[in-house]
Design brief:
- This protein is an alpha/beta fold.
- The chain folds into two domains: 3-169, Thiolase/Chalcone synthase (Peroxisomal Thiolase, Chain A, domain 1, 3-Layer(aba) Sandwich); 175-322, Thiolase/Chalcone synthase (Peroxisomal Thiolase, Chain A, domain 1, 3-Layer(aba) Sandwich).
- The chain has ten helices and 13 strands.
- The chain has helices at residues 20-23, 31-38, 51-66, 90-98, 114-127, 151-154, 215-237, 254-264, 275-278, 285-295, and strands spanning 3-12, 17-19, 42-44, 75-79, 104-108, 133-140, 160-169, 174-181, 189-190, 212-213, 244-249, 304-311, 315-322.
- It is globular and about 55 Å long.
- Bound molecules: oxa(dethia)-CoA.
Length: 323
């Protein structure tokens, strides 16, 4: 039987850290509101680096950690909703930047659940024997889609990239997964909209492609769906809660995680949080957290972790993983 294992992680965030106070200079907000309503203290905004640039830097960090030759990478999947172009894909740009000339490369669009969806696809390719390894990256430059006159969204999001190197193994890595979508509620969180207008018929292009969100609707969705997803993972894997070293949730709002913690009676200490430092980097939050924990020595081989995300689509996904 072939399984897939995470062997190495890596990350990159742009250098400009923006505090809540910095945001008060351009939008009607304040540090107290942002901290208490979301848990965010600062985020990083790119100044010139695009999504493929930060994704490639995160990818290089992953490969360097494992001393892996880019030419030996079989598959590159980038989860993103903020690619440099509609085409080429961000993954193809990353492939070129890394010199991973033998890899197949494509993107996955599932917003904040994207990294989990991408890992799931990589896992299936590896388990089926089609590819032996994969570089899976979550990367976003969301700042280019933020409307800095909309205080309900612009204070919440940030830019960043991180990823993992997965390889075929004869021992299980992903012990259980659960993913789902509810397209009927998709308009609660949109980004990059383009109307079907064109110059031939003399109509103007819609220029409002900003990220737009019904925060309450997404909050309700997240606090209902994420506990269900965690319960399913516990049931499918048969792993008792005590055996899980950490739950690494998508970092969108500390209050969402507090509700999940209360509903499932999982102590907050079991959740790894770094939202205060990065804000919501969508597909990148989970791998950024995972990489940070690896670098801090908080995770060892054979540890069991649970990752879980939710967001645009609307989508959700979770995995029980043995490292
Ligand atoms: O990654 C997945 C995508 N996103 C999410 O998971 C986000 C999910 N939603 C949330 O996290 C929360 O709903 C928000 C943080 C977006 C909003 O929190 P809330 O407690 O639902 O606040 P609200 O939108 O109901 O706004 C409450 C008040 C309003 O003022 P009034 O009408 O009560 O006078 C807002 O105008 O807070 C005001 N407000 C702000 N005030 C200062 C909204 N944004 C701000 C702000 N600074 N940045």
């Amino acid at each position: 039987m072939i399984y897939s294992k995470i062997l190495f992680t890596g990350a990159y965030v742009p250098e400009n850290s923006i505090s809540n106070d910095d945001l008060t200079t351009i939008v009607d907000t304040n540090d107290e509101w942002i901290r208490t309503r979301s848990g965010i203290e600062q985020r990083y905004f790119s100044k010139g680096e695009n999504t493929s640039d930060i994704a490639a830097k995160a990818g290089l960090d992953v490969l360097n950690k494992g001393n892996i030759n880019p030419k030996d990478v079989d598959l590159i999947i980038v989860a993103t909703v903020s690619g440099d172009y509609t085409t080429p894909s961000t993954a193809c740009l990353v492939q070129a930047a890394l010199g991973a000339e033998n890899a197949v490369a494509f993107d996955i669009s599932a917003a904040c659940s994207g990294f989990i969806f991408a890992m799931s696809v990589a896992d299936k390719y590896i388990r089926s024997g089609v590819y032996r390894n994969a570089l899976v990256i979550g990367a976003e430059v969301l700042s280019k889609y933020l409307d800095f006159t909309d205080r309900g969204t612009c204070v919440l999001f940030g830019d960043g990239a991180a990823g993992v190197y997965m390889e075929a193994s004869d021992t299980p890595g992903i012990l259980a997964e659960d993913m789902g979508s509810d397209g009927s509620r998709g308009l609660a969180l949109t980004c990059g909209h383009r109307k079907a207008e064109n110059g031939f018929f003399g109509t103007k292009r819609d220029e409002n492609s900003f990220l737009q969100m019904d925060g309450r609707a997404v909050f309700d969705f997240a606090t209902r769906q994420t506990p269900k997803c965690i319960r399913i993972l516990l049931e499918k894997s048969g792993i008792p809660l005590e055996k899980i070293r950490y739950v690494i949730p998508h970092q969108a709002n500390i209050r969402i995680v507090e509700v999940i913690s209360r509903k499932l009676k999982i102590p907050m200490e079991k959740f790894y949080m770094n939202l205060h430092q990065y804000g919501n980097t969508s597909s990148a939050t989970i791998p950024i957290a995972l990489n940070e924990m690896m670098e801090k020595g908080m995770l060892q081989k054979d540890d069991i972790i649970l990752i879980v995300g939710f967001g645009g689509g609307l989508t959700w996904g979770g995995m029980m993983i043995q490292l």
